[in-house]
Structure formats: structure tokens, C-alpha cells
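Table 4 source record.
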Amino acid sequence: MPQFGFGRKEQPQSFTTDITNKEDLQEIKKIRHMLNPNEEVFVVARQSRLKPGGSAFTPNVIFGTDRRIIIKDPSMLGLRTNVVDIPYDMISSVRLDKGIFSSNVIFKAPGLINSGRRGTLYKMTEGYGDKSGLAEEDGMIPAIPKKKAEELVEIIRNSIDKDREVYRHRQQQPQLQLQQQSSMSIADELMKLANLKEKGIISEDEFQQMKQDLIKKRI
């Protein structure tokens, strides 16, 4: 993955991305101080300049990374910037609402309700579309070019699937550990019985019977 570093005199700030578009790279440069080490930027999208409520000079910019969505709102002709980020582990599902010239990304994020991000997100996208049909736990990123919106939805879905797989793996770990411990316990008990048989403390018939009883208890 290409890494881009800036500012040799100061402590260098870098970011990781496969993006080659110069405008997109400049946008990433503006938020690189927000990125975590090894956080990769997959897509950069700008909201439509023509939608009602949008700015012809400073449209919101959306970044899709391998960990979260970052939305940058350069208000007051870029003199002030508001930023909100939405980690993928807050999002439970996502869908694409296609329009004629642009698309809306609508996602269900129960974690937004108590995080304070939902209100910030709505203020930043105010005027871009009707949100009256959205549920309390829904969020919307409106007026994104169709291709960019499709890329963003795919990134979010892949991240949701990855998080679910990690969760399932963690849930399975205790059961696997119990099974491993059980297997080790049976092996230890059988070894003890074998030692007793070798020492003549129990007979071959007793060993076989105790072995079968032990196995039945563990099934």
C-alpha cells in the first residue's frame, strides 16, 4: 500500500491509500492528523454542490477507511471545519438509496443515539434531503456521486461482515478451550489408569472397564 509522508522538518505525518487522484490525495492530507497508525483510506467522496442546502464552494467530504467513516464539513468557505467520525462497529446494516444524479447512503447505527454523533451528522447534512422517514437509530449521508456511494456501501458491508466474523470467533473460543481442556483431561486420566495397570494395582479387565466409563462420562 502506498504511503505518503509530508513535512520532513516536523514530525512526519503519513497516510496509507491506493488512491491516486490528486484532489482526493489533497483531501486526505487535510485530515491525516486524524488517522490512526496504519489506518487505510479506501474512498474519498464529495457531496453534490447542486443539492438544496449544499455549498457550491465547500461541499462535505466523506472518507471511507478500513475502520470508520469520516465526514468533513468545511463551513464558512473553508475557514472552519467540523468533523464527525462513525466507527463501523456502531453500524449494524447499510443500504443504498439511488437517485437520478446522486445516491444516499443510509445506515442503521444504534450506537449513534448515545454517542452525540447523530445530531452532529444531521446538522452537517441539513438541507441535503428529507430525513423524516428515518428511524431514530438511522443515519444518512446524502447526495454522493453514484459510483462513490456504491464503493462506500461495499466498504461498510465488508467491515460489518468482518466484525461479525471476529465476534463469532470470540464467542466460539471459550467452547473450543473447554473442548481442548476436556480432551487433555481424558488423556491425563487414561495415562493415570495405564500407570495403575502397569504397576499391577488394577487388572487389564478393570483397566478396560474404567477406560470405557471415563469415555462415556466425557461424551
